[in-house]
UniProtKB/TrEMBL annotation:
Residues 402-458 are annotated as: Disordered. This is NAD(P)/FAD-dependent oxidoreductase. Residues 330-402 form the Reductase C-terminal domain. Gene3D superfamilies: 3.30.390.30, FAD/NAD(P)-binding domain (3.50.50.60). Its cofactor is FAD. It comes from the Bacteria. Keywords: FAD, Flavoprotein, Oxidoreductase. Residues 421-436 have a biased composition (Polar residues). Pfam families: Pyr_redox_2, Reductase_C. Residues 4-309 form the FAD/NAD(P)-binding domain. It comes from Nonomuraea spiralis.
Length: 458
């Protein structure tokens, strides 16, 4: 391989570039990014940056010495031509490659009404510029902040608002915060955290419209329960959209769910044939995970971006690819509590507290699917997770027989209460996206408590 191109100059792209150089690649290395900034860390944006403990520019990642890469920043890729081996940029320039890594990640899902989204006071949070604008808006002391979506990002923003003494309402269409990622049972703990810290939490509630004044400034939000809420700042925290539009017509198996690749990070084409010169890593990838029966996963975690990028870069150079088999792992800090997870809670049907005390906000919960362990979540108990990772990797029986000193005498599993796709406002950060490279969206199982009929339109 004489030339390698990495499309996506963020965490995954940088780690892939470093791995290529560390493993002996001496050819031409190009990184293409749509933002004008060198790679930076995104998790601190909704935590330290909004809280004022770090600046947006202070999140820049330090690249390894000797990278010797060509950086094409501020000009997004618009097309991939596999026949001529060219990446086309927005300005018309074309960059040739022997092998290319797709690491274009995700962007914040916007508010669906463009006119309302353009109101002064309506924000999303994904990049450095977003964080700088929202930080300034919060520093101005708005009378009330509305966070639309109770996922991890929305909850972290709400936490920062309360830390700053700001009144904040969280509107979540599902039954609890974090329900889309951890299920309703675990989400009920998050709901108590919100309310104990003074958040006006509205669950099973949809924001129907955002209202502005004559000057185009946000003034109110109309809720599905009929309430009209006066707000000056609204943060749209509806999850992420994968950046795959630029691959239309490329011949790859790519759609809004991501780019399909094998466990070796090699992209599939539209005929479900694995390619030898196109690789995928990070938030934009969908791949069959060996620990989850080959289900195609899409994972928006920092840890996955780092490890998958390293695997992809290794396989770009190797004769025999190695699989990416790391378990999804995630952490969040909100309302003074650390929440860490390992595995895939979104496929669980049951959950049980295995250590600690929910009442004391220090516990571990294990998630099960069809009688085996598939995930665990630790609240202010991070040291316990490695043992649970081993249980998940070995497909240990659920509930696990830990005999922990701080465990319950008789573990009592309860339904996990995972939301049907589209029920919660936020989206999970790790989810199953299909059965195979060309499979259509898997049919959703109807909750048996849901009626099969609906009232007539009137």
């Amino acid at each position: 391989m004489r030339s390698a191109v990495i499309v996506g100059a963020s965490l995954a792209g940088l780690r892939a570039a470093e791995t290529l150089r560390a493993e002996g690649f001496t050819g031409e290395l190009t990184l293409i990014g749509d933002e004008p900034y060198e790679p930076y860390d995104r998790p601190p944006l909704s935590k330290q940056v909004l809280a004022g403990r770090a600046s947006p520019g202070g999140t820049t990642l330090v690249a390894a010495e000797g990278l010797q890469a060509r950086w094409l920043l501020g000009e997004p890729a618009t097309a991939l031509d596999l026949r001529t081996r060219q990446v086309r940029l927005a300005g018309g320039r074309e960059v040739g490659f022997d092998r290319v890594l797709v690491a274009t990640g995700t962007r914040a899902r916007p508010w669906p009404d463009p006119a309302e989204a353009a109101l002064d006071g309506v924000f999303t949070l994904r990049g450095r510029d977003d964080a700088a604008r929202l930080r300034a808006a919060l520093a101005a002391g708005p009378s009330r902040v509305l966070v639309i979506g109770g996922g991890f990002t929305g909850s972290e923003i709400a936490s920062v608002c309360r830390e700053k003494g700001l009144a904040v309402t969280v509107a979540e269409r599902g039954p609890a915060p974090l329900a889309g990622a951890l299920g309703t049972a675990a989400g009920s703990v998050a709901a108590r955290l919100h309310r104990e810290h003074g958040v006006d939490l509205r669950v099973n509630t949809t924001v129907m419209a955002l209202e502005g004044d004559a000057a185009g400034r946000l003034r109110a939000a109309h809720l599905s329960d009929g309430d009209v809420l006066p707000v000056e700042v609204a943060v749209i925290a509806l999850g992420a959209t994968r950046n795959t539009e630029w691959l239309a017509g490329s011949g790859l198996a790519a759609d809004a769910r991501g780019v399909v690749c094998d466990a070796g990070c090699r992209a599939f084409d539209a005929d479900a044939v694995v390619t030898s010169d196109v690789f995928v890593a990070g938030d934009v990838a969908r791949w069959p995970h060996p620990h989850y029966d080959g289900l195609l996963l899409a994972v928006e975690h920092w840890d996955n971006a780092v490890r998958q990028a390293a695997t992809a870069a290794h396989n770009m150079l190797a004769d025999r690819p190695r699989p990416h088999r790391g378990l999804p792992a995630f952490w969040s800090y909100q309302f003074g509590v650390s929440i860490k997870s390992v595995g895939l809670p979104t496929i669980a049907d049951e959950v049980v507290v295995t250590q600690g005390s929910v009442a004391e906000r220090r516990f571990v919960a294990c998630f099960g699917r069809r009688g085996r362990c598939v995930a665990a979540v630790a609240v202010d108990a991070p040291r316990s997770l490695p043992a649970y990772a081993a249980l998940i990797e070995s497909a240990a029986p659920f509930p696990p027989d830990l005999r922990a000193a701080d465990g319950p005498r008789t573990p009592l599993p309860v339904p996990a209460g995972l939301a049907v796709n589209g029920q919660s406002t936020h989206s999970p950060t790790a989810a199953v996206t299909g059965q195979g490279p060309t499979a259509r969206e898997a049919p959703r199982e109807r909750d048996p408590r849901s009626p099969l009929t609906a009232p007539p339109l009137e």
